[in-house]
Amino acid sequence: xxxxxxTSPHLTRSGNTGHVMFLVVLATLxxxxxxxxxFGWGNLINVVWATLIxxxxxxxxxxxxxxxxxxxxxxxxxVVTALLLGLALPxxxxxxxxxxxxxxxxxxxxxxxxxxxxxxxxxxxxxxxLVLISFPIEMTSWLAPKALVTDIQPxxxxxxxxxxxxxxxxxxxxxxxxxxxxxxxxxxxxxALMAExxxxxxxxxxxxxxxxxxxxxxxxxxxxxxxxxxxxxxWHAPVAMLGAxxxxxxxxxxxxxxxxxxxxxxxxxxxxxxxxxxxxxxxxTSATSVRGRIYFGAGIGILIYLIRTWGKYPDAVAFxxxxxxxxxxxxxxxxxxxxxxxxxGRSS
Length: 348
Known about the structure:
348 residues, mainly alpha, two-stranded antiparallel sheet, 2 strands, 61% helix
């Protein structure tokens, strides 16, 4: 009997890396639109600036490695890394903060390990964690939603936002911007207030302001559902992450609702949806088997809750993802599917 000698990869559908990255970029548009609508032009400017930095760094590294620049720029991976950082950084993050985060993500977290497909850690999360640890003040000053700003002063225009990010572009004095903590950060530092008192007194959690965070998260959820529909990734990792985070928050919130954040805040008040559908699903740094993706996502959800509740950092998506990137090879080792034709146990 003749055997066909066919090696991987075995294509099951059309498309390449660049096409997949394009779909990911397309799926982030609802979340980016909500960010721009509720928080101004900052994140859109950050995305464009981050993309320019990422493409420049990618091209320079390819020249140093004597690789075809156009071919590697065309895969879109650098653009996606820049896009995720542009969405995750505060709207008024100074230009140099984005420069540090993106260049470190591309050069150190990606290419020092050999480039696309060989990096063990998510590059965007490595860059984000670096600037979060190094520059905590700049990383925790989030622009107030327009619903709060319009009650005090006019909303910042595109040019005013641009000058805040690149102050050297303007000789005029900068317009003061109203910044505040994110809901998760504010809740973490609520002090002796009970949760009920905190919700009634904290401006960032007023109905109009809280709606901004909810719609941004729902924008990412919509984009993630589109990617699952297009079969860019499977539902296992994001659903496992959201389910584990929901279960953890329900357990502790049901036990003491006056001290612990509600499930709604955990799911919609931070980077949870962005992490679940655009970071946890990274095919390079996550687990590969079906069971492995479930364990990988659930581990991230549990770590997010533990760090948010008892750790130093209020959001914790980046740290949870990086910790589980460590565990991904071990998870894969113990969750590989059984080879077709293999029988468990000993035959009599």
